[in-house]
Amino acid sequence: MKIKTILLVSALFSAPSIADVSSPENLTFERPQGESVMVNGQAFVKQAPQPFSLKRLFGIEAAPTLYAGELLSDASGLVSYEASGLILARTDEETAKRLAKQHGLTIVSNVGGIFVFDAPASEELLALNAALQTAGLNTQLEIFSEKMKPE
User: Fold this and answer.
1) Could you identify which of 64, 69, 72, 96 might form a hypothetical disulfide with 115, taking C-beta atoms 3.0 to 4.6 angstroms apart as the criterion?
2) What torsion, rounded to 10 degrees, do the Cα atoms 150, 101, 135, 113 define?
3) Tell me, what DSSP letter sits at residue 61?
4) What three-state secondary structure class fits 18?
5) pLDDT of 12 strictly over 70
6) Short-list 138, 98, 141, 144, CA closest to 119
7) pLDDT tier at 79, thresholds 50, 70, 90
8) The whole model's pTM is what?
9) 3-state helix, strand, coil in the chain (%, to 5)
10) Which helix (H) or strand (E) holds 148?
């Protein structure tokens, strides 16, 4: 019984040094590596290896790109997302057809004036979304996580 008590007390006293929980910075997650991308006003990290670039080092690199199928993660790196290539826009039917033809989009559906466009896989989504917003549309790029993936 005496040995069990000694082992228990020594384990309790040595636990903080073994776990090294004395400093809070040891309990944080590392930030995900990759390129920062803004989608619908939210910051995501594009999960792609980035080679060394002097332009990036000096902050003169071109804007980030995003294509359908590319993987993103939130700022914590805990939730993964996939760019779907779908764009939602509120507009009338005539404008939707004109812009779809102009930008090479396919109209997937229309419910109550909200159109779902499907962009080709080769189309850069951030630039396309900006072009549609310049044309006066209120748009949103669709990204899916494992929890919010359509069946």
Assistant:
1) 96
2) -50
3) P
4) helix
5) no
6) 141
7) confident
8) 0.68
9) 30, 30, 40
10) none
